[in-house]
Request: fold
Amino acid sequence: KQEVTQIPAALSVPEGENLVLNCSFTDSAIYNLQWFRQDPGKGLTSLLLIQSSQREQTSGRLNASLDKSSGRSTLYIAASQPGDSATYLCAVLSLGNAGKSTFGDGTTLTVKP
Amino acid sequence: DGGITQSPKYLFRKEGQNVTLSCEQNLNHDAMYWYRQDPGQGLRLIYYSQIVNDFQKGDIAEGYSVSREKKESFPLTVTSAQKNPTAFYLCASSIAAGGASNEQFFGPGTRLTVL
Reply:
């Protein structure tokens, strides 16, 4: 059974700092990994999707990497801003799981002005 | 304007009542999903549907029911058998249920509170 872990659960950084969020998974037989952002009381917004054959994806100040062999993905946020404050979740779509994704519990990021 | 809508935004339920949460999408997606989110936790899958007139139980289906009579609609009923229904409910859709390029998109959520 796929298990997805995000550590730390919470992270606080000063504005302008570059930071890395981590996502680990136990079964490397995956279709893809998706990173989401969730603001308090809101739905999830898709940030980046990395297919199993890809190593990384970039969108603006965000860069997500995938290392299937080690079961790890990172989300790199450059030059953080207070508006980046939110909870970031990763989700893994596994082979043989009938199209069901497994979500981590998220990392809550606070960027202080 | 394409997307996923959920209604109502807030819902209050008395003990013993059934309530239905609405989810509609105009993205022409085949697959739709219902998740439950409790404070400080990730998402848990309740039900999902890969195609019209077909749906499967997720990890926590007990006390819930769904229907998929139309491609764009996937309502969730929280029955009185669900003992702890207070939570944030999220609906999602994707082009298909599997595949490397398959990406999930989410609605804004419904917060259900039991009085």
